[in-house]
Specification:
The complex is a heterodimer of chains A (347) and B (448).
Chain A lengths: L1 H32 L3 H11 L3 H18 L1 H10 L1 H20 L6 H31 L28 H25 L4 H30 L12 H21 L3 H23 L2 E3 L9 E2 H4 L3 H28 L13
Antiparallel strand pairs in A: 1-2
Helix pairs in contact in A: 1-2, 1-3, 1-6, 1-7, 1-10, 3-4, 5-6, 6-7, 7-8, 7-10, 8-9, 9-10
Chain B lengths: L5 H16 L3 H21 L2 H34 L2 H35 L1 H35 L4 E3 L5 E3 L2 H5 L2 H32 L3 H37 L1 H7 L6 E2 L3 E8 L4 E8 L2 H7 L5 E2 L14 H30 L7 H9 L2 H18 L2 E3 L3 E2 L10 H42 L1
Antiparallel strand pairs in B: 1-2, 3-6, 4-5, 7-8
Helix pairs in contact in B: 1-3, 1-14, 2-3, 2-5, 2-7, 3-4, 3-8, 3-14, 4-5, 5-7, 7-8, 7-12, 7-13, 8-9, 8-11, 11-13
Classes of the chains: A mainly alpha (347), B mainly alpha (448).
């Protein structure tokens, strides 16, 4: 049962990253794709009706994590106190900048919120990546199941580590580049020329960075935490995920070059799902590793909530996720066409 | 205990961010209901003015909703960041309601809000009414899951304690039908409906007093005054009464502190005004109505109500004067609102409301009252629960994150304060603009 919930939480985080990832990425690249206030407005229109729903996946994943693994929620949220609160501030700025930009028809008003939108999107991508880097590297969990990390110490991955060290910064950069490229694929899919062409050009340039960072990131991860390879030495599933990632990378370039925007965007989504799924696969059954003493690590065995609660939860979770899938299908279908200057929309 | 220790800043930050956050949902939950009603009337009668009114309030709703969403995100996260020990202890139970809020309420409201705000032409009249209904459902469901979470902290049910000290769920049904949750939900949502109604009536009064948007102003006044009066009655009875009797039964110490009843007495009085004097353990300058507290609590004028002297001081709420004032402000403002709205409904019935200028002034000036009363109500509930974070099971002093220092807590609190100051300025600026532009402009904008 705990394994199932591990898979569910991982799935929800993957969905969050794929969906809100393109909102954040669109924010990061929007000032390159749109050159005038009117063009930038089209970028906002392409995510306007969906961004809030996408962000809910983070809240729902957080709630589900809390529900299924309370000690993990308690340890990680209090241990990553400062960066998490900063993520909250950035999420607030991002939401506000999208929602109120269109309320006042003044160039100076647009300029300010466009800047805020790009800045919060870029920083959020980096922060979320750095958080993942911390989880992979391990944290100084003590015997009571708590830890606290300062923002930075010596930037080394051993000894008394901070939130930011060379490895977590690397993962942050990976996340930044990946989501910026993901956002560019989304914009190529949802906009018309000339925005579409610019977005595809950005995606083309970023593809090389994504491919390079995939290799560098993999080598660095194995170096920082060799144990991640354990599960991959087994045949079968161990080969599936790397194959998926390589195929997705190839698909991104292949479909983009042929102008098949939807396929290229889906390949980019698959790449993100493969990378995150690969991390979850490598971590299992550890949830948060202690770099003080492996016996202090939080695992499925010592962190799962009571069996009765988890059983009941499956029933409402399945109902809830089916409903959510229904809403999302309907909303994405309603807004399926490319956005254009003449179209309806308030953003 | 050091006054400014880490636990203090965590409490301060949670209280501050929550109080600020709830300024927005109380309006959106109330307006969501009124929007469904107005869209429904427009659909049934074909009266276009109701559609225009709904468009105007939809814009106010949209701004408030955006601010509610962004200020709501920190709430869930702070359970982990600042209240880690509490989360580890209680997550096995309240994780249910918090996760369900995300799965059932947030997805629903976030998916259909965009369609409601921007899809009127695309959806058609019936479809647009349905979208308003779904947004209403989502926001009121969200309210239930949050109130059920708080109700469990007030009155823990449906749990078993494990050897490691944490609690786990033992009955899903009992958690969701906690009697405390049912009364508290009814009282909270009725309070939110009052905010929506009073704001609507107040803006209508403003339009009539300034001679702008007169026709829409009358309509706002009518809907707002009727709904406000109805929910103000419900707020008093049965919801307020039901909530109060639960407190009397399960939190007798809290009841005594709310009324600043220091000494156990038969025929306990209801306090109208007075200042609790903690040093002398008495109420200074009291104005009392004899016997009423006994009657409200036990339905007998001479019944004995336990005072604070019946309980050890270590179990008293740690800020009795603030609790006492919060409670009395809530009740006092609620009573004033009810009185004003009753007279307003009478004037409306006589067809004289729109030209009774003193009443229009009163209604316009009434706008802050429901916000203050709702805030004071939540303060009564949360300060009244002290010194417990989970009543009878875990003390607040044991619930905070052990690794988060006072310095870090203050750092983020100051950050939130700065951020919310900016948000307040932007919010007031935007809402003032919408009211300035008025209902006619809102409909023109929707037609583009």
């Amino acid at each position: 049962m705990a394994t199932l919930w591990f898979a569910i939480v991982a799935l929800m985080l993957v969905i969050y990253t794929v969906l809100d990832g393109f909102d954040l990425g669109a924010g990061t690249v929007h000032w390159l794709v749109g050159r005038t206030p009117e063009e930038r407005r089209l970028v906002l229109r392409s995510i306007g009706p969906v961004w809030d729903g996408n962000e809910v996946w983070l809240l729902a994943a957080g709630g589900t994590l809390y529900f299924a693994f309370p000690p993990l929620y308690a340890a990680s949220f209090s241990g990553f106190y400062l960066p998490l609160i900063m993520v909250l501030w950035l999420l607030m700025l991002r939401g506000i900048s999208i929602e109120i930009r269109a309320h006042v028809d003044e160039p100076i008003w647009y300029a300010f919120y466009d800047f805020l939108f790009a800045l919060s999107g870029a920083l959020l991508s980096i922060f979320l990546g750095a958080a993942l880097g911390n989880v992979i590297r391990g944290v100084p969990l003590n015997g009571d199941g708590y830890f606290f990390l300062p923002l930075w110490t010596t930037f080394r991955v051993t000894g008394s580590v901070g939130i930011l060290d060379w490895y977590t910064v690397l993962v942050g950069v990976m996340s930044f580049v990946t989501l910026a490229s993901h956002g560019a694929y989304w914009l190529a899919l949802k906009t018309e020329e000339p925005l579409r062409g610019r977005a595809r050009q950005i995606a083309a340039v970023l593809w090389w960075a994504v491919a390079l960072l995939t290799v560098v990131g993999l080598v660095a991860t194995v170096w920082v935490r060799p144990a991640v390879l354990d599960h991959y030495s087994r045949p079968g599933a161990g080969w599936l995920i790397p194959a998926l990632v390589v195929a997705a990378l190839a698909g991104m370039a292949f479909y983009r070059a042929r102008g098949r925007d939807l396929a290229a965007f889906l390949a980019s989504s698959l790449y993100i799902a493969g990378m995150l799924g690969g991390v979850a696969f490598a971590m299992y059954p550890t949830l948060l590793a202690s770099n003080i003493d492996p016996s202090f690590s939080l695992t499925l065995a010592n962190s799962a909530a009571g069996a009765y609660g988890l059983r009941v939860g499956i029933m409402w979770w399945v109902v809830g996720v089916l409903l959510a899938a229904g809403y999302f299908t309907y909303v994405y279908w309603s807004f399926r066409s490319r956005v254009s200057a003449s179209g309806e929309g308030v953003y | 205990m050091n006054l400014f220790d880490a636990a203090f800043w965590s409490r301060f930050q949670f209280g501050f961010t929550l109080t600020y956050h709830y300024l927005f949902p109380q309006l959106t939950m109330g307006l969501a209901l009124l929007l469904v009603v107005m869209k429904g009337i427009a659909l049934r009668t074909g009266d276009r003015r109701y559609d225009e009114a709904a468009r105007f309030w939809g814009r106010i709703f949209g701004i408030n909703f955006a601010f509610g969403v962004v200020t709501g995100i920190p709430m869930e996260f702070q359970f982990g960041t600042n209240w880690a020990a509490f989360s580890k202890f209680a997550g096995g139970v309240i994780g249910q309601t918090l996760a369900m809020e995300g799965m059932f309420a947030f997805f629903l409201e976030s998916s259909f809000l965009g369609l409601f705000l921007y899809g009127e032409r695309r959806l058609g009249r019936v479809g647009h009414w349905v979208s308003s209904l779904l947004v209403f459902l989502g926001s009121w469901l969200s309210g239930y899951f949050i109130v059920a979470t708080d109700a469990w902290m007030q009155h823990p049910v449906a749990y078993t304690t494990l050897p490691d000290g944490s609690v786990q769920l033992s009955s899903f049904r009992a958690l969701l039908t906690n009697p405390w949750a049912l009364w508290q939900y009814a009282h909270t949502m009725s309070g939110a409906a009052i905010t929506g109604a009073v704001v609507m009536a107040g803006v209508g009064a403003f339009y009539l007093l300034t001679g702008r948007a007169v026709e829409h102003g009358r309509l706002f006044l009518k809907v707002g005054v009727i709904a406000g009066c109805l929910f103000s009655l419900l707020q008093l009875f049965p919801t307020g009464d039901g909530q109060g009797r639960l407190i009397a039964e399960h939190q007798p110490t809290t009841l005594a502190a709310m009324e600043a009843l220091f000494n156990t007495a038969p025929g306990a009085p209801l306090v109208l005004i007075g200042q609790p004097n903690m040093a002398e353990r008495q109420l200074d300058n009291p104005i009392l109505v004899p016997g009423v507290l006994s009657f409200l609590t036990y339905r007998r004028w001479g019944a004995t109500v336990q005072g604070l002297d019946a309980f050890p001081p270590s179990s008293w709420p740690d800020n009795i004067p603030l609790l006492y004032y919060a409670y009395h402000i809530m009740v006092g403002l609620g009573t004033i609102m009810l009185a004003v709205l009753l007279v307003a409904v009478f004037l409306l019935w006589r067809g004289a409301l729109a030209r009774t200028r003193w009443m229009l002034w009163l209604l316009m000036l009434l706008i802050p009252f429901p916000y203050i009363a709702n805030t004071a109500g939540w303060m009564t509930a949360e300060i009244g629960r002290q010194p417990w974070v989970v009543y009878g099971l875990m003390r607040t002093a044991q619930g905070f994150s052990p690794e988060v220092s006072a310095g870090n807590g203050l750092f983020t609190l100051l950050g939130f304060m700065g951020m919310y100051t900016v948000l307040t300025v932007v919010f007031l600026f935007l809402v003032r603009r919408e009211i300035e532009h008025g209902p006619a402009a809102a409909s023109t904008a929707a037609a583009h």
